Amino acid sequence: MREHKGGYGQVVATPEVDPAVSELSGALLPEAAELAKEMAARIRAEIPLYREGDAVAEEELVRSCTDNLRYILGSLAGSPVDDGDAPRRTGAARAEQGVPYPSVLQAYRIGGRFVWELLVERSDAAVHDILLRAAADIWTVTDDLSAYVTDAYRAAQADQARRDDQIRASLLGTLLEDTSGSERLREAAGLLNLPRTGELVVVSAECPAAGDEALPGVEGFLARRDVVSVWRLDHDHQEGLVVLRPGFRATDLATTLADLAHGRVGMSSVLSRVEGAPAARREAQLACTAATPGTSDLAVYDDHALAVLVASTPDTATQFARRVLGPLLALPPEDCRTLLETARVWLEEAGSSSAAAKRLYLHRNTVRYRTRRIEELTGRDLAHPVDAAELHVALECARILGLG
After folding, report:
1. Which residues, 6 or more positions from 382, have their beta carbon under 8 angstroms from its beta carbon?
2. What is the model's pTM?
3. pLDDT of res. 7
4. Spatial separation of the C-alpha atoms in residues 70 and 178, rounded to whole Å
5. What's the confidence (pLDDT) of residue 249?
6. How much is the pLDDT for 81?
7. How buried is residue 281: exposed, middle or buried, by Cβ count under 10 Å (0-12/13-18/19+)?
8. How far apart are CA 30 and CA 212, in angstroms?
9. For position 181, what pLDDT does the model report?
């Protein structure tokens, strides 16, 4: 085996070939530029995409064929070309040009067959048997070249995807954050192929950890349901703009997102113009904050008015919760949790001790005992509508702020 530098500068081993094959390859090397035209013509004849010339211009195809011929013939001749980066450039270029990967591989198979037929055609009959024995070595060099191109193609595709994601995230940022005027918003919506009018919803979801998606694969999941959306991942939140359609309304979106969620999620009210996206983003953020911390609950802005109000004024909410629930919050954690849960369920059941007892799997006398204790600790008379309302608001403050 011989060693030389491959398409990425790494040391690559190529097989030792018969001297007759090396001599023949070396003799053909000076003709590489002319032979490349024949190789390119064959590729264009067999692959329609190359024949049409829209993706890869004829001059560029001939140039890459020349590089490939010099690489293969030089390797077989024992004098590999110095420009080992040519395969990488070709692979990256095809990815940037949008040439499908199968077409790229097909072109290299055609090129490999062209080299083999060329060697057979230019050799004496006495050398044909040697060429047959050396076929595996010849294809090894061609396969190495294809591998370099494949790696470069995939790396370029990954870079392109990252760039595309960054561009989309930047454009979505304009839609969600720019309040300076509608012209930039309209331009960003156009570049993202989003309608300027129609029913749209903004979503804000809390990531379970920095950089982790709160709604994994959400864009593809919605696309498979013919729902257009665009998303971006921030440090601790995943945000998206979703275009609703007939047959897939806001309630359907809420159900879908709730099933995907790995963190709490907030949805804005439905807006009719993309210019309303910045305000809708604020709604989605508040709705997300209004959901219970540490859960994957989903809150819709229009459906949780009190919780959204509390979330919008966290400092005031903290003061209010401590003023109303202070003695209760000072209890040992287990006692505190028990009384908070009892108070919430009792209020949700419209003050019915029997209904609350059924939900809590308790005797109604136990519920009555606990509600009396809550009244003693908070100084509120739960039979009084205003006191009961204050307790409800304070409980919402405690839930959203994670108190108790």
Report:
1. 346, 351, 371, 374, 375, 388, 391
2. 0.60
3. 41
4. 54
5. 94
6. 64
7. buried
8. 55
9. 66
